[in-house]
Amino acid sequence: MTKEELKDKVLNLSQGMLTYSDSGVFDLMFEVKPENLTKAAVLLRDHEELRFDFMNNITGVDTGEHFEVVYSLASLSNKTRLDFKVVLPYEGAKLESLCEVWKAANWHEREIWELYGIDFTGHPNLTRFLLPDDWDQGHPMRKDWDAPDFVRMPEL
Amino acid sequence: MGLIKKVPVYAERIPGGGIVATQLESLLSHSQACSMWYLLFATACCAIELMCTGASRYDFDRLGMIFRPTPRQADLIIAAGTITKKMAPRLRRLYDQMAEPRYVIAMGGCTVKGGPFYYDSYAVEKGIDHIIPVDVFIPGCPPRPESLLEGCLHLQKKIKSQKLGDWHEK
Amino acid sequence: MAELRTEEFQVNMGPHHPSTHGVCRLVLTMDGEKVVAVEPVIGYLHRAIEKICENRTYPQCSPMMDRFEYVTAMSSDYVYALAVEKLAQLEVPERAEYLRVIMLELNRIASHLIFWGVTAMDIGAYTPFLYGLREREDIIDLFEMTCGQRLTYNYIRIGGVSRDIPKEFEPKCRAFIKKLRGKFSDYEGLLNENPIWLARTKGIGVLTPETAISYGASGPVLRASGIDYDLRRDDPYSIYDKFDFAIPTQKTGDCYDRFIQRLDEMKESLKIIEQALDGLPEGEIKAKVKPKFKPPEGEVYSRIESARGEMGAYVRSDGTTKPVRVKLRGSSYNHLALVPEICTDVLIADLVAIFATLDIIMPEVDR
């Protein structure tokens, strides 16, 4: 299946839930509204022509203007790959958890919750993960994050 | 007496065998220096170099150094690899669990001063010398096994030169 | 007779434990010798590599990648370089691609040799550790004569490789291939049919294909469960489509299969290295990349087959000299998430075997 065919197929099958985004340089990139996330994910996983059964990665991104959560998927049977992302505002960033759809999502979501402060509703175990147990300095991967002992590399 | 001060071991042949006279001090420190059992405290990249040093080619055992999995049996911590803020209290606790006399080798740039993670990292402890006292620093990212062996020889020298009861005041 | 009342209790395994391959803490709920539940606690090696990369220029990020996955540092260098090359649509010279493949495969063998030795050591056989690291030193010598480093190579850079191989590399590499081929019978003779080894690994920690896929397991772990999927063939990167190699798979997905799987993979890697040495063309080794290199705006996720499985790098650019976000995906991350699933109702000694054969290393998890 070529990329163009896959793109058309996804756009047709999703009936507007997934829209094409041209920010993906190499693989296909789609955008999903937060409220359609679970529906779109289940469609991508279960539709027999798509079969994206393998979750590669979830990335939280702070672009400086808003949050984005980028999901990378692959299909082991069709040997295809695509990404899709959800754009979230800073205030009250909240998403549905995809742990039920792909079990691999569990730890990735937990990490994003901790480092960015994006809440995942329906996640079974949102507890301290990478940071020390007594951490009280907020979400360090945010662009505006700072702390007294945080030393930035000086510009040369 | 003057002779013994200069030469730590003094052997004299007597009929039917020999006696060796030495100072208790040099006997103790010599045997201590030649059997430093180290705690396998390997966290990051340096761990692999520590493993290589312990394996076939570099053969740590010839210095009398054998790894121990528990601090109760160890004389020496080789802190190999980055110590993060989450790990720092554990390092302190392991050090506290060791019996005196105890020594520490800080292996690699991260344990010296944070190494490549000095800038821009919110999670890395910048040097282990403010968690536990360090005897020998070995720079490098990671140090070669030869550097580690050199560091151990330096530590041996230090142990051999110490006076009885030195560690007690530490 | 009245039934004996037993009580569950908790044991902390780690964060400093010799068989957790780094600093992972497992909170075990035990019923006697049986493990009832496992909860991994991670983050003891979280060094914020991703945060550091946000304040570095693109070429400055690449030394960080060596520290992300130091056992196969070539792979992690490569996955980042591949992502940036995709972003900037850089053409890489052919000689550089050949050199990369040679180094990646040598590094895969080095990693599997460590796996072979350390797994055996965890389960109770010390000799393989000494044998495995002895052969690994020969590979390290090859790397050292090429790039001067033993562990953190920083050899694969954006646009190519940092320097050409010296003249004596090729004969030494061929000699090593011959030597290692001769050693496989030793390796197999040591453990493969040893009754104690079989009792410790056969039927232990069975991973079904469905669980493996849903948890995102990849690489040798996935193939040991019987799924024929290898990115070198199924999503070819670099010049892997030019080489002829088989992809071994196993059937049951227990500890023994995962162990054998990696031994089989080493043999295939040797074939690839031989073909790459035969076909090594002359020419440039690096595309021109400025120090103030600015890829165009966009985002990309690149993935390769490292020794442990799928390694990925998500890189996002806003057109400046520094990336907005670099996210690294290590396969151990997903494999460690599998541990609570397959480690229920096993003996604590088997837990060590399962942990070892999943080949989890912690920097990949914590980053």
Give an overview of the whole structure.
The complex is a heterotrimer of chains A (156), B (170) and C (367). With 156 residues, chain A is an alpha/beta fold. Chain A has a single domain (3-121), classed as 2-Layer Sandwich (Beta Polymerase, domain 2). Chain A has 3 helices and 7 strands. Chain A is globular and about 50 Å long. Chain B is an alpha/beta fold and 170 residues long. Chain B is elongated. The two termini of chain B are 29 Å apart. With 367 residues, chain C is α+β, with helices and mostly antiparallel strands. Chain C has a 4-stranded antiparallel β-sheet. A 3-stranded antiparallel β-sheet of chain C has the order 6-7-8. In chain C, strands 4-5 form a two-stranded antiparallel sheet. Chains in contact: A-B, A-C, B-C. Chain A binds chain C through residues 23-27, 29, 53-57, 59-64, 70, 72, 74, 76, 79, 81, 83, 102-104, 106-107, 128-132, 140-141, 143, 152-153, and chain C through 42-43, 46, 48, 50-51, 54-56, 86-87, 89, 213-216, 227, 229, 234-235, 296-303, 310, 312, 314, 316, 318, 324-325, 327, 329, 333-334, 337, 341, 366.
Question: What descriptive keywords fit this protein?
Answer:
heterotrimer, B: two-stranded antiparallel sheet, 7 strands, C: 367 residues, Cytochrome-c3 Hydrogenase, chain B, 4-stranded antiparallel sheet, 3-stranded antiparallel sheet, 14 helices, 13% strand
